[in-house]
């Protein structure tokens, strides 16, 4: 039974089934994302910086996004708005400690997964295809391990996934407001993480092209104008920042410099490197804990199948094949190295392309059975993927640091400093949790608190 039929069921049993399934999807994906977060939260420099900003008042938030490793920053403050909202809503339940931000971020992504589940189910009419898509996405070890880490690429990827879901739901067809909201979600994803731009541009194209396909030129032009207005509105904080800095602070200078060097002929187009980078990302994000040397060619083949099979559904193609092709072409203009996390926003498109292609190559009468087989395969690899995710991007020292910081704060005795007997990552901070918990420092105190590996606290005399 397809989703539209379920949603229109008069007796309520269909609606109850949909609600139960979506609630289960939300609960299970959230559970695997936040399990053990109080004992392994990844507390590194980026997380300390961003959570410190989220602890400010809203009026003290930056007008631009987080700094990037290529000497710039994202082009809008939406990431900090979202993180601040998480701190306000979720933070008080967890003493405003940073892992509250990870929990809130995981809640957001699980909610978006539920939306995508409904969108794929409605678009394809196949529950196994929809569930397979979510299982493959939510349990991918690389992405799963990062899902509860305060980090703007994860939030950008989550928002890009939400925009994909809204397009697949035809949310933009309902009203001008629906179109504006869909466009806004796509561009806010770029605010959070620049790498989401390939999905955002594909979303914009889908919104306009959908009207063209229906031979409604007026609606297409109105859609384009609405998208333009939304982007300009969302860039108001960035414009204000540029005015305040005298237009001397270029956030995307490294990207612009790469494009300029290639277009001027000083450097060559790096298409082969871009293709290799995407293939590596597919292996590290989706195929891990295994490897598949031909994953790039598999994606090309799947894309060709989807292009042919769904050629009469341009919005679907825009949410599957086009973002991936745009990213490969776009990153060919980028001269720096290509890390796998750059491609996180593309994973919903990649997974949906693979699943749709797998069901499209079999006769129609066998498509339902093919969907069930794909789902069985996706579920079979979940345990191995969860075990792998548990070994990635975790800081096991967080449990001891949290326990010791709480003990110190409860004692209320000012100390000169807080140290640990165990080695923390270079960018972490042994005093960060203690400060959030209200711990006091006194430069005149002779005592330096030392948190042990078991979470206990000892003191050493640091002298006068």
Q: How would you sum up this structure, described in words?
A:
The chain is mainly α. It folds into two domains: 387 residues, no CATH class; 64 residues, no CATH class. It is 63% helix and 4% strand. It contains 22 helices and five strands. Strands 3-4-5 form a three-stranded mixed sheet, covered by helices on one side. A hairpin with a 3-residue loop joins β1 and β2. α6 runs antiparallel to α7, α11 packs antiparallel against α12 and α11 runs antiparallel to α17. The longest helix has 26 residues. The chain is globular, with a radius of gyration of 24 Å. The protein starts with a helix and ends with a strand. The N terminus is likely disordered.
Helix content: 55-70%
| Overall geometric form | globular
Quaternary organization:
single chain
Strand content of the residues, in percent? under 5%
Radius of gyration: 24 Å
Main β sheet profile: 3 strands, mixed
User: Structural class, from secondary structure content?
Assistant: mainly alpha
Name the strands of the widest sheet in spatial order: 3-4-5
Distance separating the two termini: 76 Å
């Amino acid at each position: 039974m397809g989703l539209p039929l379920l949603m229109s069921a008069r007796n309520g049993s269909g609606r109850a089934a949909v609600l139960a399934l979506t609630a289960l999807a939300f609960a299970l994906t959230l559970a695997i994302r936040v399990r053990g977060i109080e004992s392994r939260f990844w507390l590194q420099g980026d997380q300390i910086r961003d959570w410190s900003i989220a602890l400010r008042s809203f009026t003290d938030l930056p007008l631009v996004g987080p700094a990037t490793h290529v000497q710039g920053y994202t082009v809008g403050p939406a990431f900090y708005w979202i993180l601040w909202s998480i701190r306000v809503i979720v933070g008080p339940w967890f003493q405003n400690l940073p892992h509250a931000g990870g929990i809130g971020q995981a809640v957001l992504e699980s909610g978006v997964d539920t939306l995508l589940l409904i969108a794929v189910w409605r678009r394809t009419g196949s529950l196994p295809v929809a569930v397979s898509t979510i299982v493959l996405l939510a349990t991918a070890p690389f992405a799963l391990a990062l899902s509860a880490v305060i980090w703007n690429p994860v939030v950008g990827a989550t928002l890009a996934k939400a925009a994909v879901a809204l397009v697949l739901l035809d949310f933009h067809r309902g009203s001008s407001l629906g179109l504006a909201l869909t466009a806004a979600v796509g561009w806010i994803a770029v605010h959070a993480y620049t790498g989401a731009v390939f999905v955002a541009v594909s979303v914009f194209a889908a919104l306009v092209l959908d009207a063209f396909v229906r031979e409604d030129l007026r609606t297409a032009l109105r859609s384009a104008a609405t998208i333009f207005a939304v982007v300009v509105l969302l860039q108001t904080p960035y414009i204000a920042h540029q005015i305040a800095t005298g237009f001397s602070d270029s956030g995307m200078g490294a990207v612009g410099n790469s494009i300029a060097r290639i277009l001027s002929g000083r450097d060559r187009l790096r298409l082969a490197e871009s293709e290799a980078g995407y293939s590596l990302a597919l292996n590290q994000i989706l195929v891990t804990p295994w490897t598949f040397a031909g994953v790039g060619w598999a994606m090309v083949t799947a894309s060709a199948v989807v292009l042919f099979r769904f050629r009469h559904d341009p919005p679907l193609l825009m949410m599957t094949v086009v973002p991936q092709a745009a990213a490969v072409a776009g990153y060919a203009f980028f001269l720096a190295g290509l890390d796998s996390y750059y491609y996180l926003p593309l994973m919903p498109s990649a997974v949906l392309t693979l699943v749709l292609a797998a069901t499209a190559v079999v006769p129609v009468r066998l498509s339902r059975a093919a969907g069930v087989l794909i789902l069985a395969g996706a579920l079979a690899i979940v345990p191995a993927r969860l075990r792998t995710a548990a070994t990635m991007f975790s800081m096991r020292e967080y449990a001891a640091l949290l326990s010791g910081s709480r003990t110190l704060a409860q004692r209320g005795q000012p100390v000169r400093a807080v140290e640990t007997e165990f080695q923390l990552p270079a960018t972490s901070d042994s005093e960060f949790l203690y400060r959030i918990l209200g711990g006091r420092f006194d430069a005149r105190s002779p005592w330096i608190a030392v948190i042990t590996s078991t979470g206990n606290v000892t003191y050493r005399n640091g002298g006068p």
